[in-house]
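TEACHING EXERCISE
Course module: macromolecular assemblies
Task: Read the component lines below, then compare them to the predicted structure of the full complex.
Student: A.B.
Group: 4
Components provided:
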Amino acid sequence: MRYLPLDASDRALMLARVGAADIDALFSDIPADKRLSALLDMPGSMSELEVERALTTMAARNVAAGSVPFFLGAGAYRHHIPASVDHLIQRSEFLTSYTPYQPEIAQGTLQALFEFQTQVAALTGMEVANASMYDGSTACAEAMLMAHRLTRRKKAVLSGGLHPQYSDVAATLAEMAGDEIVRMSLDVRASEDIGAEIDDSTSCVIVQTPDFFGNLRDLAPIAAAAHAKGALLVAVFTEAVSLGAVRSPGEMGADIVVGEGQSIGNALNFGGPYLGLFAAHLKHVRQMPGRLAGETLDADGRRSFVLTLSTREQHIRREKATSNICTNSGLCALAFSIHLTLLGEAGLRRLARVNHAHAVDLAERLGAIGGVSMLNETFFNEFTIRTPRNARALVEDLASRGVIGGLPVSRLAPDAGLDDLLVVAATELNSAADRAAYAAALAQCL
Amino acid sequence: MSEIRFTKDHEYVRVDGDVGTVGISDHAQQQLGDVVFVELPALGAKFDKGAGAAVVESVKAASDIFAPVSGEVVAVNGDVDAEPGLINQDALGRGWIMKIKLADPKELDGLMNQSDYDAFLQTLA
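Instructor-supplied answer key:
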């Protein structure tokens, strides 16, 4: 393959062929104020050694998650990952195979996905789960679209406890499709009356638990209110470990359950790749997006695995497919499955208890500091505190004292008037010394 | 007295008064193979002639069923929802899909009668 850059005459030829006056014309869909009008102010060329020095100096300014007491969550959680997980997923049969779905040659991958689906269905309390999606936010948006298809309605009601970025993704899709979205205002204390927003044109309500602020929500009454109007309940979680401690969304009456699976087996990875989990009832399986691995018998009667119900998918149904997403996060799903298998049911419950215990201890330490108030009545491993200072300035001060203190709510919701709120998470990785260091640093910063 | 008409997409409509019973022809069910799922329209849904109104999914493919006439859905066949194989067993009888109240009976003139459809199938062979 040649990698020779094109010259001016090549470009002119191509522009003439597509009928564009100049290169900028190809970017006309991007609003003018989002485009650069001048070159970036960048230094000129450097030698390899100079670049290495410059970037090393820059990188040293980072405070890495693993190097300091770290209490950031809000959709991405730092958990311990056993060394065996990375060792196993790096086997070349898993790591380097591309779309390994032909049953003749890919029984290992297909069986791993089948086991993954079984685990996700069991965790969420649902009957069927797909082979995963890109991440929690896109799984959430796909659940909304699935609810639209099932109910033949076009209006989704989004709880004010839903992660703001999940709401943004759903709103982006809805805007492009001309569907209606009702975004309830940010609900710090889980006190909203979402049932009052459901009417005969509502396709679904989307509710997260534990919610963005850490509150646990009882989904059962919301499910009943939705079902009374012929609407569906989409349950969302961003912290999969919580499912080791709380009643499953399926048991509480959810019709579709989606969430972020990163917490189990997957590192923070600078925000991705992550793992969208998606589960539903069997009666709705044909409207479920994504791939499904299924168990069957081969010609000799042996247990084997295949992709199933593919007639819903894009490569067969083209524009009438249930979703444009035909791919999944296979390697992240494998990591999830391996870690969950190593934990087992009892191990997951113990892990969840440790997470909760650490969060309770942290909440007590932080709540004892003058001026700090704890806003949650319930939480799993994450909660929201009100501080006497602007939370964004506060986390900078904490970072300068070597503590990553959490997520200022205003970072994701700058106009909500919640500048003094901080969302704080604690996992099994936050030792007693870490928690004490946080409390000490916070006391100094106030 | 009912009369049956066919489309080139192999839907049929059997007309009684102002209501047409819609399904797929015996030829169509043979071509599709075992039908495993039928997605029925909502009662009261209105379709223009030629619009996708239902989906029949077989082990081979998922196929849109286009409304052979314009009108409103006044009944759907819950039996094929529960037992999609009825379409293979008895496409023109118990395997019907929906009943449409005809908006414009003149549309029937554009469809094929039984002998025209039989001749049309010969041209496909």
